[in-house]
Amino acid sequence: MYKNIFTKFTSSSSIQLSNKVKQCFSLKGHTIDIQSEHNLIQRKSDFEQLYKVKYTDKLVGYATAEGTKKYSELKKDSVDPTNFSTPFKSDLTLSSIGFGSYQGTPDKEDDMKMFNALIDSVNSGGINVIDTALNFRYQKSERSIGAALRYLKNQNKITRDQYFLASKGGFLVDDADQGIPSTVLINNLIQKKLITEEDIIGACHCMNPNYLSQNIDQSLDNLGVETLDLYYLQNASEVQMPLIGEDKFFEKLSLVFELFEKKIQENKIRNYGLATWLAFRSRQDEKNIHLNLQKVVKLAEKVGGKNHGLRYIQLPVNVMMPESFSEKWQNYENEKGEVQEQFLLKVARELQVNIITSSPLMQGAMINCPLPKDVFQCVNQGAKHLQFVRSIPSPAIISTLIGQKSNRNVKKNLEVIVYPKLSEDKFWEFLIPSKREQEIEETVNIS
């Protein structure tokens, strides 16, 4: 007999939710029955009417101080106030949990799931940060989000100024809806001499400003908005720097920042940043992998001045990826000219750069890594892991992104929004090795 110490979820017939969590899902169009994929039929006609390959009736505006503050108060009786914070160099009120849209297959079923999941997430009163990318599900994630934003406006009076919308570009991307491969766009740009074949790195990525400009316009069309609150250069350091070297990478990055500053002036984006996977989690000696945040910020200052638009970076943070606060892998030069080895979160705070974290569950793997109930109040393991990441004691961390498509997972994960973040003492106490009593909930016979 083998004692399985992993916490076992309650069965599908008895998902546990507190009364506060249930209150978060009481707006029009919601149900408390977590067992059902409740709106796949109810909202089907809405989805089919709203989903477009290109939205011509674009939503005007962007996230504002007044709008995001209003959103934070929609469910103030049930959503804990620590769920919201204000980023550096900003007056916005943003949620500590954000909606991610990476996972899924490029088909109508997952379009519907993402459409419904975003509506449920925003209507909870606890999520007003929405993250996507042009290449996610071959452009279908952006279009599904565009449909959901229109539903939220029409049915729930959630206006454009209440949520913070981010997208990304840089990868070559096919169009699943129209059946157009990325090579068609690339060949067209090459024929027009807007880019060259040498601009395509690793057969998958391009930092040429003309290509990125097209990416931005395509995302605006897919989402049906006039302005993005944040636009990231996506995984450029991971794809390009190992192949072209750091010096050439920063030459290209300078041109990208020039483009992004121009797009801010054109009101197509409000801020820009770098979405990464390894770059800010690697050691200084990992040549052509590691990125120094201060060097990146200095480049932005050179291009855009002290009021440059580089305000955010994105990287994965979870129990198994704690490097941003556990390893001093960033060199930082202080005002005295002294170079110190520092934690990324410390450097981000000094430089006033906001961090959006990704992959809190490592695409579901963390569900099998139970967190102790004597520290984390949440019932569901996913919510406990979200509580861990959002409680990291740093003002630089603004939001952690969670991908969720089913009604069941939305409600399980968003259990976290009714609880306060862990105190700093409680967080560090949890990380100190100690003997804890494990929950033994299942016996498995492996003979």
Automatic annotation (TrEMBL):
UniProt-listed InterPro entries: AKR2_Oxidoreductase, NAD(P)_OxRdtase_dom_sf, NADP_OxRdtase_dom
SUPFAM superfamilies from the UniProt entry: NAD(P)-linked oxidoreductase
Domain of life where this protein originates: Eukaryota
Record domain NADP-dependent oxidoreductase: where: 97-276
Protein name listed in UniProt: Aldo/keto reductase family oxidoreductase
